[in-house]
Here is the input.
Amino acid sequence: MAGGVGSRFWPMSTPDMPKQFIDVLGCGRTLIQLAYDRFQGICQPENFWVVTSAKYGDLVKEQLPEIPDDHILLEPCRRNTAPCIAYVSWKIKAKNPRANIVVAPSDHIVMDNREFARVVLSALKFTADSDAIVTLGMKATRPETGYGYIEADLSMACPSNKEIYRVDSFREKPSLPTAQRYLQKKNYFWNAGIFVWNVSTIVNALRVYQPKIGEIFERMLPYFYTDKEQSMIDESFPQCENISIDYAIMEKADEIYVFPASFGWSDLGTWGSLHENMHRDAYDNLSVGPNIRLIDSRNCVVHALQEKKVVVQGLDGYLVAENNDMLLVCRLSEEQRIGEFTKED
Amino acid sequence: MAGGVGSRFWPMSTPDMPKQFIDVLGCGRTLIQLAYDRFQGICQPENFWVVTSAKYGDLVKEQLPEIPDDHILLEPCRRNTAPCIAYVSWKIKAKNPRANIVVAPSDHIVMDNREFARVVLSALKFTADSDAIVTLGMKATRPETGYGYIEADLSMACPSNKEIYRVDSFREKPSLPTAQRYLQKKNYFWNAGIFVWNVSTIVNALRVYQPKIGEIFERMLPYFYTDKEQSMIDESFPQCENISIDYAIMEKADEIYVFPASFGWSDLGTWGSLHENMHRDAYDNLSVGPNIRLIDSRNCVVHALQEKKVVVQGLDGYLVAENNDMLLVCRLSEEQRIGEFTKED
Here is the structure.
């Protein structure tokens, strides 16, 4: 899934070049490339599918030349994750009704790719032989209020995979006291938005719980893999309800499982999460860029990949981000206001 | 005089493009162009001379195409103001022994060009008929410790120009208590480094007080206006003592005069002086650039001429300056450390 606009990461991320297409970590690979790399040994290049906005199609082709062009699906408009997943699922099923699938966002980070591969392969083995909907649940390390949580029933491990448990409930982003309670309880996991299932399972679930979306893609079947596909999608996709897969399926279906895991995951939803997940200096500063010098500064994020030289002096708890001739300096504690800051008067 | 390197204005000003060649005020004209404009009605284009470093010769030609190419004198190395003034003075005298001259830095600002023209024309009239060395003394408006001061004898106005007074002494940059005393005394003026004299006066003064420099340019006489001038200058100029005109002449000569004036002058020596001299918003912020937004911020200077969009939030008393893919954020109170900040480790 590569259709996000990453507005909370301005100015690094902009609607023309959202964060999945940016080398956020300054490592030489963009987030979507890192997501692709993460599946080496799990999935052949010809079995990757990318669903993105029509405007990002060329970016995906450029950044992931290994993926067949016709595996890049272009949404004419944004409709959240359920229609996105439905599109690619119906299309894959038309070609391979026995396909086994991992759905993952393209703009997250994973620090431990080996553990990621182990978990994903184990989950795929599980869904190859069952109609389970499996979510990856991240073991919480702090009382995070920015994530949804998955409540697991740890008393019931699956017989065929002892690492997988039934889900009791999905919980929306909690308040801080609630998040603190979740952290203590040990059976609450962060919902990473990474799903494993076989293609029949998800198509059936969408048919049952989102029949309107199901009908739209059922009617698409004659047009998949033809010249008319894009024009038909452009016509019918906008008719889909704007709904996340969590609301559309997870909170409704019965047979939901969670695979608790710990592989250094972050959704990189905010500058603060980048600060938390990256290597910081002795003064808790994070710098990403070729030549950044911090003086008398603490707890700062300085992100300036294109700047030849950056000097920051005397700041505590600030974000300094420069990209593409746009510059933001703000308190990290105020970063939820970035959208407001950047709105034109 | 256009040979300065403007290191205190990093990153706007760099050794490759110092501040006299930059549109510091964001008005569409660089400081040297504004200095040129300031002399409209005082001096014909063919009577301008620019002394600069060899590396800036092309910049001067580009920015001041009106000036004859051979009036751009190129110093092979930096030797402060005395050798710079000596070079151009000997050269002008060789062509026109009766020339009447204003020497001015190219990187200062003047807010009231009309009053500037009145003062300069009045001083020129005075030096046309006398051997006086005239300095322009800026009426102090604050106890500035960053400028040298001129102590005038206000009891002795010149008979031929009642605005011009004898100088009692030149004073170096004072401490704050001393500057406060100067401000109260009314006969202390800021030394703006702007001088008016006829060419014989300054050449004679240099011969008397700086005989070694005098000899060097005396020996240059046969080569001025020939193909050999540059190579001879490249050889002999470095032999000049590195000395300012203030030390070389002003503090030694007897017949020094001051013309107290008030035309909104600043030497723009520091970001703070830009802050003081430019129009600020209701929160005492100065922004120079096409699209700068300040939120919850006070007493800041934001200078980003090339950035398409800048957002600054939550800063008080900071400088944010971006230029040519270089970025500086620092406390304005620490700006004297800019040189240290930018030094490579």
Residues 143 and 177 of chain B are 8 Å apart (CA to CA). Chain B touches chain A at residues 11, 293, 295-296, 304, 306-315, 318, 320, 322, 324-331, 334, 337, 341-342 (CB under 8 Å). Chain B has eleven helices and 16 strands.
